[in-house]
Amino acid sequence: RRSWAEPWKIKMVEPLTVTTREERQKALEEAGYNTFLLRSEDVYIDLLTDSGTSAMSDRQWAGMMLGDEAYAGSRNFYHLETAIQTYYGYKYVVPTHQGRGAENLLSQAAIRLGDHVPGNMYFTTTRFHQEHAGATFHDVIIDEAHDTASLHPFKGNIDLDKLQRLIDQVGADKIPYVCLAVTVNMAGGQPVSMANARAVRELTARYGIKIYLDATRAVENALFIQEREEGYSDKSLAEILREFCSYSDGATMSGKKDHLVNIGGWLATNDRELFEEARNLVVVYEGLHTYGGMAGRDMEAMAIGIEESVNVDYMRSRIGQVRYLGDLLDQWGIPFMKPVGGHAIFLDARAFYPQLEQDQFPAQTLAAELYLDSGIRAMERGIVSAGRDQVTGDHHRPKLELTRLTIPRRVYTQAHMDVVAESLKAVYEARESTRGLRMVYEPKYLRFFQARFERL
Ligand code: F0G
C-alpha cells in the first residue's frame, strides 16, 4: 500500500491543554461523568465528534472574507446552491443552520400523524424529528450491522426483505419516504453500496415511496464504493456521489461533517411541492430561505468545502487516519467494530467490560475511564444515546453498546493517534477492576447530551 500522507501542510496551530489526573477527576465529577458536559479547556485530544470540528483550508478562510451579509439574496447562497446542485444533483435547496434543522423541515413537510419511516439504523436527531412529527421509526438495516465482528463490506445496507415486510404490513401510503443514511453513523460509519441504493430505488418506485438521503457523510461513503464495489474503481468521488444521489428524491445534510465547515446544513429535493412547503417552514424555524440560519461567510466556506471534500487524496488520508488508529488497537486486541468505518472507531464496550450489565452503562463508563486516563474525550453510543421507547417508557436496548472515538477532519496528526491508542491500552489493561455508572439525572429529549451519572 502507498502511504496516505495528508495532501496539505499546517499553516496555523492551536495549543492543547495537558491536565493532571487529579484535575481530570474533578472535571469529570463536575460533568456528571458525561463527556458532553466537560469544558473543552479540560480536554487534551477531542474525539467527541467529527461534527463542526474540521480545520478549514486557506481557501475557505479566504472565502470567509467574501461573506455577503445581506439579509436577503446573499451572493454566497447562490454559490452554495450551485455547489449542491453540481455535486449532489438535486434541483431545489433550502439552507438550514445545521443537519437537524433540515431534518425538522423534512419531517414536518413530509410526515403525517400515524406514518411509518424506515431507515438503515436510527440517528438520534433524525429519529427524534420523525417521531416528533408523528411517525414511527423502523430499523431496516441488514442484520450484519448489529454484529460488531461481521466483516460485511457494506454493513450500512438496507435489508430489502425487511423493507418489503414493512410495506406489506403498514401499506405504502403510510410510508412518506425511506430515510437512507450514508455512511451509517450509529453502525460504526459503515457504508451503503451503490447496488443497494439502486435496489432500494427499484423496490420503492413500485409503490411510489420516496427516498431521502441523510447525506451527512456521503462523500466518505463514495470512497468505500470506489475501493470495494466492482465497476467503480475508475470513477471519481464526484461521479460516484452524483450517481448515488440520483437514486433518491432529496437529502438532508449536516455540512458540519463532509463539507469541512464548523456550522451549516441544508435540505435539498427534486420535489417542487415539498420544496415549497419546506421553504415556507424555513422562515419560521431557521431564517430567510437564502440563509437559513447561516451567515453569508458560513455559506461561502461551505460551498468551497464541498469542492474540497471530493478530492480523493484528501479522502484517502482522512479515512486512512481512522484505519491507522484501528490497526494499532487491533495489535493490542482491543475490541472494536469491524471493519473500520469512515469517521470513527467504535469501541465495543460490552466486550470491553463483560462484567457490566447494559443498565450500568458500559459505553458511558469507557468514555469516562479514557478521559480520566489521558484527557481524551470520546462519546457514548449505546443505551444512553438510544433513549426510551415512547410507548413503554423503558430504555431502548440497542444491540450495539459502543464508545466512539471520532476523528475530526484535518485536525490531528498520526502522533496524536499513537497517544490515543496507548491510553486505550492502559484503560483496557485496567478493565477488570472497572465499575459501572448509575444515571442520576435524565433529560426528556436526547438525554445523552445532558444526562448525569455517578460511579456505582
Ligand atoms: N445525521 C447524521 C448521520 C449525523 O451524524 C448528524 C450529527 C446529524 C444527522 C445531525 O446533524 O448535528 O448538524 O444537526 N451528528 C453529530 C455526531 C452530532 O456527533 O455524530 P447536526
TrEMBL record:
GO terms for molecular function: tyrosine phenol-lyase activity. It comes from the Bacteria. One of its GO terms (biological process) is tyrosine metabolic process. Gene3D superfamilies: Aspartate Aminotransferase, domain 1, Type I PLP-dependent aspartate aminotransferase-like (Major domain). Pfam families: Beta_elim_lyase. The keyword Phosphoprotein does not apply. Its EC number is 4.1.99.2. It catalyses: L-tyrosine + H2O = phenol + pyruvate + NH4(+). Its cofactor is pyridoxal 5'-phosphate. It is an enzyme of class 4 (lyase). The keyword Lyase applies. Residues 46-422 form the Aromatic amino acid beta-eliminating lyase/threonine aldolase domain. The modification N6-(pyridoxal phosphate)lysine is found at K257. Keywords: Lyase, Pyridoxal phosphate. Belongs to the beta-eliminating lyase family. Homotetramer. NCBIfam families: PRK13238.1, tyr_phenol_ly. PANTHER family: BETA-ELIMINATING LYASE-LIKE PROTEIN-RELATED (PTHR32325), TRYPTOPHANASE (PTHR32325:SF4). This is Tyrosine phenol-lyase. The lineage of its organism: Bacteria, Pseudomonadati, Pseudomonadota, Gammaproteobacteria, Lysobacterales.
